[in-house]
């Protein structure tokens, strides 16, 4: 999880981040086919509008979970990061969120949390991190490297991301899970009402001082 202080010194750190900001009504945007066809795919406004055509308007204060199909690529670094050079972040290739889509979610809908199954919503070659800058400046948390089961429904679940409270911390591994409103939507595939979305990869902990108690 990236807390607002990940980019903004005056934003919430992990100790002060209100628990309420880590829980929201969730939706899952399925872009697996687009990402399979283009490793550098960017989530678009058009895709979000098409999702609403099929599933209804995004709920207020929503957690938007983007399923790129990257869960199945872990832990193969070449498949997951799109490069053999794991030490050079700028060589990474994976699907991202376009700045236009992020702006649309802020200006036209009520985004609370962005979660996705790739290392970042921003492209590795853009060192300005525009989506991070846009969302974190508004105290919207970002949860990266989430294992998103393909059985997760398009809507009808509560998204939870429970971080460790670390004073001064801005990024941390997080236990992410969803509680389904209708257990029958995933019947016989996962335990009823409780769907666990475990982190795939370690998130760095920045500016670590001490555990908050």
From TrEMBL:
GO molecular function, one term: arylformamidase activity
A Pfam family that the UniProt record links to this protein: Cyclase
UniProt superkingdom: Eukaryota
GO biological process, one term: L-tryptophan catabolic process to kynurenine
Family: Belongs to the Cyclase 1 superfamily.
Protein's UniProt name: Cyclase
Species name: Biomphalaria glabrata
Encoding gene (name): 106069616
């Amino acid at each position: 999880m990236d807390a607002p202080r990940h980019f903004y010194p005056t934003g919430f750190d992990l100790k002060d981040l209100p628990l309420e900001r880590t829980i929201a009504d969730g939706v899952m945007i399925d872009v697996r086919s687009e990402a399979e066809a283009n490793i550098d795919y960017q989530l678009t406004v058009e895709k979000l509008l098409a999702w609403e055509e099929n599933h209804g308007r995004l709920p207020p204060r929503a957690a938007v979970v983007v399923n790129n199909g990257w869960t199945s690529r872990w832990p193969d670094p070449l498949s997951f990061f799109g490069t053999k050079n794991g030490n050079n972040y700028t060589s990474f290739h994976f699907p991202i969120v376009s700045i236009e889509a992020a702006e649309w979610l802020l200006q036209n809908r009520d985004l609370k949390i962005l979660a996705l199954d790739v290392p970042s919503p921003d492209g590795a070659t853009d060192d300005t991190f525009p989506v991070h800058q846009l969302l974190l400046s508004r105290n919207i948390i970002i949860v990266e490297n989430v294992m998103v089961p393909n059985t997760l429904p398009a809507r009808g679940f509560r998204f939870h991301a429970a971080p460790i409270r670390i004073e001064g911390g801005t990024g941390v591994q997080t236990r992410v899970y969803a509680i389904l409103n209708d257990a029958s939507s995933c019947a016989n595939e996962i335990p009823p009402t409780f769907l666990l979305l475990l982190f795939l990869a370690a998130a760095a902990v920045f500016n670590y001082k001490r555990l908050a108690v």
